[in-house]
Amino acid sequence: MSGVLLWVICPKENASFAATTSYSLVPKSRAQVRSHNSKGCSRLNFSSGVFAAASLSSAVANPPRSSVEKVYEVVLKQAALVKEQKKERAVDVRKEKGQTDSMTRGDLLNGAYNRCGEVCAEYAKTFYLGTLLMTPERRRAVWAIYVWCRRTDELVDGPNASHITPKALDRWEQRLNELFEGRPYDMYDAALSDTVSKYPVDIQPFKDMIEGMRTDLKKSRYKDFDELYLYCYYVAGTVGLMSVPVMGIAPESKASTESVYNAALALGIANQLTNILRDVGEDARRGRIYLPQDELAQAGLSDEDIFNGKVTDKWRSFMKGQIKRARMFFDEAEKGVAELNDASRWPVWASLLLYKQILDSIEANDYDNFSKRAYVGKTKKLASLPVAYCRALMDGSSKFAKPARS
Ligand SMILES: CC(C)=CCC/C(C)=C/CC/C(C)=C/CC/C(C)=C/[C@@H]1[C@@H](COP(=O)(O)OP(=O)(O)O)[C@]1(C)CC/C=C(\C)CC/C=C(\C)CCC=C(C)C
């Protein structure tokens, strides 16, 4: 099975894989971004709290844009796309009805989706179970996205990672472009190609995830939280943006599309920050420190301290701040789950509650994330599932009684 995931870069003969620019921002002015926020999205306020990047509070006349602002532009673009494609989709569905898909194509596609489901079941059992609650169409689309993300992550994190070059990532991006244009390379790509043709999923978060992998190839330190935030967006916030169009927003939701995307982004960031805090020791052994260097210095800590891996009071106090910030992102994410379609809420609550408990486990380990791996035991995991289910149900029942959120 893992062979499937590892064999992801297949240089095509005669194909010209031109290097493409990796991360282009939606051209929106700072003023526009701010006015959107004042209409109901809390992204800037939320992130400019205790730990916000210094650039946000800069008083200079034309300060450089922070990562939060850059990423927020992607959020706005994704949200706009949903509104736009809602209209187009009505037309597409009518077109599809008139077509009779050849049996062969349909069968191949079903096979491809089923394989994605198998990969998902093997790599993320709990999450897979959660997807079984979704409608069959949504479920298989989430599987297809999951598999593409997993394969992308495997490029820099899997056993073949040492052979991965920026060129290989350029080829992976070229394949991505092709599958979005309806020319998939293999069956997993075919499943995703079908998914992106059916849902208002934009290519930008996918490209940004590849950019995150490029970042991993060339960078092992993060100057401040602004830099780390951007990295977290690339590798995990993007997953939230990819998933929402498929999971769907509840028809009765009164929240703005932007605020739901914002929550999804926050969940990705929260998950990744948690991942980073859990894996400090493991990453240090690979020479990597995914912690803001300026905050480490303020706490009187150096890279050496991380490599030595001793739990001191300075370290505990530093970790408390980092955990607090990760929880702030989880809190922000929680606000959006209720706005998702009924069947999508449970898997999201489940993944949120499970991941959040890793933070509790770091605390229970007395902040020793150098030699102990924080994890959520089977019993706690199982106990979280009905809790997640109840939260999802409560979201549904309170929705009708609640006034509009934004
Ligand atoms: C319902 C649901 C959770 C859907 C997401 C499904 C999906 C497409 C997942 C892809 C995950 C993946 C393979 C990402 C590749 C990059 C990566 C590895 C990111 C890290 C995940 C943890 O992975 P890993 O397997 O390495 O972890 P363990 O070592 O096993 O612990 C990340 C930390 C990020 C994952 C990010 C998400 C799952 C984003 C979740 C956000 C949403 C689903 C949006 C929810 C919507 C609202 C409104 C809140």
From TrEMBL:
Pfam families: SQS_PSY (PF00494). GO terms for cellular component: plastid. One of its GO terms (molecular function) is 15-cis-phytoene synthase activity. It comes from the Eukaryota. The lineage of its organism: Eukaryota, Viridiplantae, Streptophyta, Embryophyta, Tracheophyta. PANTHER family: BIFUNCTIONAL LYCOPENE CYCLASE/PHYTOENE SYNTHASE (PTHR31480). Transmembrane segments: none annotated. One of its GO terms (biological process) is carotenoid biosynthetic process. Keywords: Carotenoid biosynthesis, Isoprene biosynthesis, Transferase. Belongs to the phytoene/squalene synthase family. The keyword Transferase applies. The keyword RNA-binding does not apply. Pathway: Carotenoid biosynthesis; phytoene biosynthesis; all-trans-phytoene from geranylgeranyl diphosphate: step 1/1. This is 15-cis-phytoene synthase. It is an enzyme of class 2 (transferase). Its EC number is 2.5.1.32. InterPro entries: Isoprenoid_synthase_dom_sf (IPR008949), Squ/phyt_synthse (IPR002060), Squalene/phytoene_synthase_CS (IPR019845), Trans_IPPS_bact-type (IPR044843), Trans_IPPS_HH (IPR033904). It catalyses: 2 (2E,6E,10E)-geranylgeranyl diphosphate = 15-cis-phytoene + 2 diphosphate.
